[in-house]
Amino acid sequence: MFLPWRPVGVDGGPPILTAITDAETGVLATLAADAGEALEVGSGFGYSAVVMAKAGARVTAVDPHAGELPGSLGIMTGNLQAYGVTTVTVRVGTSQAILPACQLGTFGLVFVDGDHTEATVVHDVEWAVKLLRPGGVLACHDYDEGTCPGVKAALDRLMGGPGDLTDTLAVYRDLA
């Protein structure tokens, strides 16, 4: 499956560029509604942060906002403002720098959609499991997406496969 980037509005709001499908959006919103605290690894232009916040989660969004998406921090900040979202804390930096500084056992949901190399996905998933509270949920985007082979390789090795799969959103429960 190949997921193109396209502009999508949340609940009729202004469009935000994303590669998350409508079905994946529905699952992410449902997971966020029960999460309380959510950690997002890889924010891009803020679509998933807006989805999770509008579903009721307090979101910590981690992204270096450099490299493949130049200008993404300003665009994300503008999108958060356009949606009136005030429950998102943006942490600018790599997951390698920021995740070890987060409080263990804090998050009801960790959504991994950052650097898609196998080594980084392994890092992010290993830290995600530590950062989840008991009963928390891990969701990873781009499982078996054609341009992101590192995601599938890492999740197959660490998790034994995709867990519950919706399009390319792999969901794992009962990890913490």
Per DSSP E runs of 2 or more residues, the count of β-strands stands at 9
Strand residue percentage: 25-35%
Q: Calculate Rg over CA atoms.
A: 14 Å
Helical residues, percent: 25-40%
What is the terminal-to-terminal distance? 30 Å
What is the topology, as strand order, of the major beta sheet?
A: 5-4-3-6-7-9-8
Mean pLDDT: 96
Structural class of the secondary elements? alpha/beta
What is the approximate shape?
globular
Largest sheet descriptor: 7 strands, mixed
The helix/strand series, from N terminus to C terminus, equals EEHEHEHEHEHEHEE
Low-confidence stretches: none
Q: Count of helices?
A: 6
Explain what you see.
This protein is an alpha/beta fold. It is 34% helix and 26% strand. It is built from 6 helices and 9 strands. The strands form 2 sheets. Strands 5-4-3-6-7-9-8 form a 7-stranded mixed sheet, with helices on both faces. Helix 1 (22-33) crosses helix 2 (47-54) and helix 5 packs across helix 6 (149-159). It is globular. The N and C termini lie far apart (30 Å).
